[in-house]
Design goal:
By secondary structure, the protein is of the alpha/beta class. The protein is built from eight helices and 15 strands. The chain folds into two domains: about 1-120 and about 290-320, Quinone Oxidoreductase, Chain A, domain 1; about 135-260, NAD(P)-binding Rossmann-like Domain (Rossmann fold). The N and C termini lie close together (about 10 Å). Bound molecules: NADP nicotinamide-adenine-dinucleotide phosphate.
């Protein structure tokens, strides 16, 4: 089968189309003929080599999220899965391929009126957005700032916060056009990347969901209300400065909290329950799923170049 592997860490040119034997599902796994493969910020970090410390090696086939049809199952898996259209988390890679393996507990049937491409914009990001907001103890009536809202995580966070009754949903983004699109998804105030602008924007927020981190992170800590909570769910801008902790301590009297959140800490049944509810909501048209562009699998490198250039609003989806 055709697959795309990271032959060399670094630029997108390190991605190469290769031939691999079709994988064979082991106990508890399913084999999926892929129809849509999500290209995520995590894939970009893995390709760059930034996550080598987590065990990712050159030769790795990236791709954590696919949708398609189950064609075979391993021992212990109900054969009724065969022939079903599903969304799946591959659990760490192997998705950039014509056929991919996933553990059956990470596989969800696709609602009939949800396309495979739409499913891979929602399956992972929806769960991170949902549990990121709950990790921040977000409650209806509170104000929320989503930093780095134009990616798939941010787009879902904006929609979920708005649906849940946030008093305000401010976003940071780099262009007026993106701001207008985010408004249509539920944003009430559009700020620039440094958190400035946004007519009548709140001066403080109860919750900040931060997808960017990076050197500017402490200046956003200053935008929390007393008892406010900032949760980092991504770090597309790199690590915060070394004095981040000192900045937090300087604001001691505001009783603010900072936390990281990873969906890896959510139990599989809890992830499944939320995903099932979100897929149903999307199929009823209550969640907007933003596919930036469909590209053939062979164009994984151009897809990553677009990610690197910051051109992507929503998610790029590869098709085999
Ligand atoms: N917590 C979890 O369980 C979990 C799960 C999966 C992924 N992740 C993490 O989530 C992140 C990817 O999320 P995503 O795909 O939604 O993000 P993304 O699309 O890669 O980036 C989101 C937006 O952030 C803005 N941005 C990018 N670089 C920036 C910078 N240096 N300064 C300020 N703004 C910047 C860009 O929008 P503008 O140009 O409009 O500003 C971009 O569209 C990764 O860090 C990944 O590791 C976390």
């Amino acid at each position: 089968m055709k697959a795309v592997a990271i032959q060399a860490f670094g630029s997108p040119e390190g991605l190469a189309v290769i031939d691999l034997p079709a994988p064979i599902p082991a106990d508890g796994q399913v084999l999926i003929a892929t129809e849509a493969i999500g290209v995520s910020g995590a894939d970009v970090l893995i390709r760059s080599g930034a996550l080598a410390a987590y065990g990712f090696k050159e030769g790795h086939v990236p791709g954590g999220e696919v949708a398609g049809t189950v064609t075979a199952v391993g021992d212990g898996v109900d054969t009724s899965w065969i022939g079903r259209r599903v969304w799946a988390s591959t659990g760490g890679g192997g998705g950039y391929a014509e056929q991919a393996i996933a553990p059956v507990e990470e596989v969800l049937p696709l609602p009939a009126n949800l396309s495979a491409a739409e499913a891979v914009t929602l399956g992972s990001s929806g769960v991170v957005a949902h549990f990121g907001l709950s990790h921040a103890h977000f409650a209806p009536g509170e104000s929320v700032l989503v930093r780095g809202a134009a990616g798939s995580l941010g787009i879902m966070t904006v929609q979920l916060a708005a649906r849940a009754g946030a008093a305000a949903v401010a976003v940071t983004t780099s262009s007026v056009e993106r701001g207008d699109r985010l408004r249509k998804l539920g944003a009430t105030h559009v700020l620039d990347r440094s958190g400035e602008g946004g007519e009548d924007a709140p001066t403080g927020y109860d919750v900040i969901i931060d997808i960017v981190a990076g050197v500017d992170m402490p200046s956003f800590f200053d935008k929390l209300n007393p008892n406010g909570r900032m949760v980092a769910i991504g770090a597309v801008g790199g690590q915060p400065p070394a004095d981040f902790g000192a900045n937090m301590m300087a604001a001691f009297k505001k009783s603010m909290s900072f936390a990281t959140f990873s969906a890896d800490t959510v139990s599989e049944p809890d992830r499944r329950a939320v995903r099932t509810e979100q897929f149903a909501a999307a199929s009823r048209g209550e969640l907007q799923l933003v596919v930036h562009e469909l590209l053939p699998l062979e164009q994984a490198a151009p897809a990553h170049r677009k990610m690197d250039a910051g051109e992507v609003f929503g998610r790029i989806v590869l098709t085999p």
